[in-house]
């Protein structure tokens, strides 16, 4: 089932919570709604589900306008951050619940329900825990039961609101891999809300980045990470170094250094900002032309890479560099040492859009 949102608007009183939201989700896609707290992710999810009304705009499931359909009629599976399982029912009973409460006419036979539950238990890898109660499960296991329960009624669309938000980092990581694999085997159109960049980048086919009720960018994880469409996206997705300066005839002049920026020859801005990722900064112990001089203030080895925190001598600004462990060892950099930094590449946004 594909989903098409067009020009969706929503106010809560005077507060403009969703602004001109248009989005096309293809059948079988796994989409992440990513953004800071209050950016409108949950409101958008609830509007798609039919749990919240909208002021104006259109929502199509395939070619059907669903605005007049209730949440139930939209045939949506919902998984929330806090596993809303029934504690007095076993895992198997929880999963069967949605089928058992159907009207007699639509209810599968007892045997069909049992088969469906067994199939879902296998899918979420909990067959050995079918007779346990929710209180006897870990948080991660409970979320898998919640997902199996949502899938039992064979929804056309699956909506997940911070499904792993209440779990610790390791379990979260395992579960998001598991969700990715599950989705590969069982490609139901799914939209999940998260404020965790890594989770969105790791799991989603495409990411919708939201800020203050607007969509900032829609793209694959690689597109949004490698080609952020706005300063907001650049800052929000990963670490970034800012180089304030003057852009003139294709050169960014900043403190003690200047950098040629191909593609920006026609642009002149007195005060702008260049954005560079930590792994796009060159670091050297020898002074080379057009470099920034900085002091190494912290060294954090993290697995195969080393993060270095630096303080620029000329502007006193903070910089972050990321280099492979092996390269770091060869350089023999120590804390307190003076080093020279040069961006390999930099992005400048003109009127909020990258050239
Ligand atoms: N029922 C409501 N009544 C009034 N304001 C609301 C209501 N629901 C949401 N809002 C406001 O709309 C804005 C967007 O909220 P929403 O929950 O959609 O954001 P979010 O991106 O999901 O945030 P979070 O990550 O914190 O859950 C917030 O400022 C919130 O206070």
Q: What does the model show?
A:
With 355 residues, this protein is of the alpha+beta class. The chain folds into 2 domains: 3-236, Rossmann fold (3-Layer(aba) Sandwich); 241-354, RNA polymerase II/Efflux pump adaptor protein, barrel-sandwich hybrid domain (OB fold (Dihydrolipoamide Acetyltransferase, E2P), Beta Barrel). Helix content is 25%, strand content 36%. It contains 9 helices and 21 strands. The strands form 4 sheets. It has a 6-stranded mixed sheet, with helices on both faces. Strands 13-12-11-14-20-21 form a 6-stranded antiparallel sheet, with no helix packed on it. Helix 2 crosses helix 3 and helix 2 (91-100) packs parallel to helix 4 (139-152). Bound molecules: adenosine-5'-triphosphate. Adenosine-5'-triphosphate binds at residues 12, 15, 17, 35, 37-43, 195.
């Amino acid at each position: 089932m594909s989903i098409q949102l067009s020009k969706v608007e929503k106010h809560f009183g005077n507060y403009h919570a969703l602004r001109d939201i248009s989005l096309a989700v293809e059948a079988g896609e796994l989409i992440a709604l990513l953004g800071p707290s209050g950016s409108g992710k949950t409101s958008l999810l609830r509007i798609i589900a039919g749990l919240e009304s909208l002021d104006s705009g259109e929502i199509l499931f395939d070619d059907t306008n669903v605005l007049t359909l209730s949440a139930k009629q939209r045939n949506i599976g919902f998984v929330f951050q806090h596993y809303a399982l029934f504690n007095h029912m076993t895992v198997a009973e929880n999963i069967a619940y949605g089928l058992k409460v159907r009207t007699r006419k639509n209810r599968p036979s007892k045997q069909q329900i049992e088969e469906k539950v067994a199939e879902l238990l296998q899918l979420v890898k909990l067959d050995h825990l079918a007779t346990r109660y929710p209180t006897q499960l870990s948080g991660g296991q409970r979320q898998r039961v919640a997902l199996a329960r949502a899938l039992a009624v064979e929804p056309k669309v699956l909506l997940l609101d911070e499904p792993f938000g209440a779990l610790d980092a390791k379990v979260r990581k395992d579960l998001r891999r598991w969700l990715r694999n599950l989705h590969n085997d069982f490609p139901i159109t799914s939209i999940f809300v998260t404020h965790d960049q890594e989770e969105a980048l790791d799991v989603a086919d495409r990411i919708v980045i939201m800020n203050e009720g607007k969509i900032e960018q829609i793209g694959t994880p690689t597109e949004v990470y490698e080609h952020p469409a706005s300063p907001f996206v650049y800052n929000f997705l990963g670490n970034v170094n800012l180089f304030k300066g003057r852009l003139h005839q294709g050169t960014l002049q900043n403190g003690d250094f200047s950098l040629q920026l191909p593609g920006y020859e026609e642009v002149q801005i007195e005060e702008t900002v260049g954005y560079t990722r930590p792994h796009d900064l060159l670091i050297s112990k020898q002074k080379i032309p057009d470099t920034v001089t900085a002091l190494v203030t912290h060294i954090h080895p993290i697995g195969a890479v080393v993060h270095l925190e630096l303080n620029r001598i000329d502007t006193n600004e903070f910089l972050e560099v990321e280099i492979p462990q092996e390269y770091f060892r060869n350089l023999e950099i120590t804390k307190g040492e003076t080093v020279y930094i040069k961006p390999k590449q930099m992005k400048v946004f003109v009127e909020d859009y990258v050239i």
